[in-house]
Amino acid sequence: MGFKSGFVALVGKPNVGKSTLLNAFLGRKIAIATAKPQTTRNRIQGVLHSPQGQIVFVDTPGIIKPRHKLDERLETSVRRAFKEVDVIAHVVDISKPPREEEIRVARMVSQSGQPAILIGNKSDLVLHTDGRLEPYLSLAPYRHTFAVSAQFEIGLDSVVATLWDLLPEGMPYFPEDVVTNQTEDFYISEVIREKILEQTRDEVPHSVAVTVEERQMRSEQLMYIRASIYVERDSQKAIIIGNRGQMLKQVGQLARRDLEEYYSKQVYLDLWVKVRGHWRDQDAWLTRLGYPKRET
After folding, report:
1. Structure confidence at residue 38 (pLDDT)
2. What angle do CA 182, 187, 190 make, to 5 degrees?
3. 59 is in an annotated binding site
4. 15 labelled binding-site residue
5. CA–CA separation, 247 vs 249, rounded Å?
6. Does the annotation place 19 within a ligand binding site?
7. Is 122 marked within a binding site?
8. 123 is in an annotated binding site
9. Residue numbers of the domain that contains 110
């Protein structure tokens, strides 16, 4: 058998563990993952290198019924992924039966015409996995089904072995030392956003965007980073800053810890919170933040 290479899209509704699964496949943290739905907003590629070949996993935003222009652009990103990959991995929460959102995702999988597999994640939450995936089997033509736990890395080897069978022979897409397509600024902004999602109440997370304004080596041991945190209302700004700045300080400390591990040096993180009303419905801002335009 020759060298295998190809792209595998991880798709599904929000909060089924796609990002956790991506990190588990690669054995390192590439994508942020929290308990909040819609943590993932961008397509993130993670590369699994092996003597057998190269699997490029594509983590996609959770699919929901769009409520504003940001949701529309996120769905556009997912639909493009359907067209550009070799295999679709529909990830579901095995502890729950399929609902309207899952049926919508399965319909998209079926309409894509791409080879598809079904991954039932969160198997650690159920006593028995037997029969748990049967309700999904009539929704789309899945070639293989799996019950896994991304959190505890159970059942992943079987998925990878099957993907080697499904992927075509070809040349590698990335050099051996590359594990993701993310830029430094994107990673920094995602780490900061992750800490905000983890620390704030439900009304804040979906209204937050982070941009890196400046990144500069101040010395051999110090990286200076200035980032802006955008929210839609003054009340959200007050929540992120917190009483006497304590929330923002906590977010900064947690983010700096991850970034210092990433850079292996000290990081000075300079965070600013700004209000940009209704940015999720402003095309110019969505484009500036890197979200693909909606397909017409």
Report:
1. 66
2. 125
3. yes
4. yes
5. 5
6. yes
7. yes
8. yes
9. 4-166
